[in-house]
Design a protein that fits this description.
seven-stranded parallel beta sheet, alpha/beta, single chain, Rossmann fold, binds NADP nicotinamide-adenine-dinucleotide phosphate, globular
Length: about 260
């Protein structure tokens, strides 16, 4: 019987997550999309179906409610697959100064990243252990290494990176790798919204902000979502079998730390 490899791609109706779903689909994996908006899920699923008929489907989930994840997955407990890969990804927090962050702002980001990623990894990690093979990739950002003023809620991404390192140590003996991909500025809806917010906060035009940021990127441009997706696809492949517990920057050299 042909091995079924299923990739669960979260936040996959837009931006980086959607590019990852399309890239893994082209590699022949069966895709499970996860996001909140039903209409967008249906549209992306039909795009996958046009690429191949590998039994793609979607689950509507809101990472603001991590406690809803386990019951939602129970409905698909017996799905067919021999090998699983899990891409933990969700829309990021918008810029906010530290002194303006309320308790619920931190709690919301904590729910969307650490708690949701953990719930999904518990569910699929147990399936990966049975198969003695697995891949978990978390999409975070270079702010986990180098804080950017105004992006204080990204501290939760750093906590998630710490959690992922511990997870990689626990799961390594089961031939499961766990890595974090850290995009720099990437042409997506989220980046567009951030530029708008910062422009309103500072009075600097969008064009000037884009120009200032691009000037700080050695490769002098933003990434395309497909470029982040290519790295994730590599990490999911057998060619990346010995990479685990790593933070992998895909930022055109934007981050100044080593
Ligand atoms: N773009 C950049 O420049 C950049 C740079 C560094 C790091 N990153 C990080 O990369 C990740 C992806 O960013 P992106 O730019 O691809 O974002 P994006 O274009 O805004 O896409 C976000 C995706 O997540 C889904 N989503 C949002 N909130 C959700 C929730 N509560 N529950 C479930 N799904 C949710 C969205 O679909 P629904 O709205 O339908 O739920 C959408 O599919 C984020 O962590 C971001 O911070 C991005």
């Amino acid at each position: 019987m042909k091995a079924i490899k299923r990739a669960i791609v979260c936040g996959s109706t837009d931006g980086i997550g959607k590019a990852i779903a399309l890239s893994l689909c082209k590699e022949g994996y069966a895709i499970t999309l996860i996001a909140r908006d039903l209409r967008k899920l249906e549209i992306v699923k039909s795009e996958l179906d046009k690429l191949n008929s590998n039994n793609h489907f979607f689950i509507q989930l809101d990472f603001n409610q991590p406690e809803s994840i386990k019951p939602s997955l129970a409905a698909v407990e017996n799905w067919q697959a021999t090998e699983f890969m899990l891409i933990n990804n969700v829309g990021g927090p918008m810029p906010q100064n530290i002194l303006e962050c309320e308790i619920q702002d931190f709690q919301s980001v904590f729910n969307k990243y650490l708690l949701s990623f953990s719930e999904l990894s518990k569910f699929f990690g147990s399936k990966m252990k049975k198969a003695n093979w697995g891949r978990i990739v978390n999409i975070l950002g270079t702010t986990i290494l180098e804080p950017i003023p105004g992006f204080s809620l990204s501290v939760v991404k750093s906590a998630t990176s710490n959690w992922a390192k511990a997870l990689s140590i626990e799961l390594g003996k089961f031939n499961i790798t766990v890595n974090n991909v850290l995009p720099g500025p990437t042409n997506t809806k989220e980046l567009d919204e951030i530029i708008d917010i910062v422009s309103k906060q500072t009075g600097i035009t969008r064009e000037q902000l884009i120009n200032d940021t691009v000037t700080r990127i050695p490769l002098r441009r933003f990434a395309e979502p497909t470029e982040i997706a290519d790295s994730v696809t590599f990490l999911c492949s057998d060619k990346a079998a010995f990479i685990t517990g790593s933070n992998i920057k895909i930022d055109g050299g934007y981050s100044t730390c080593l």
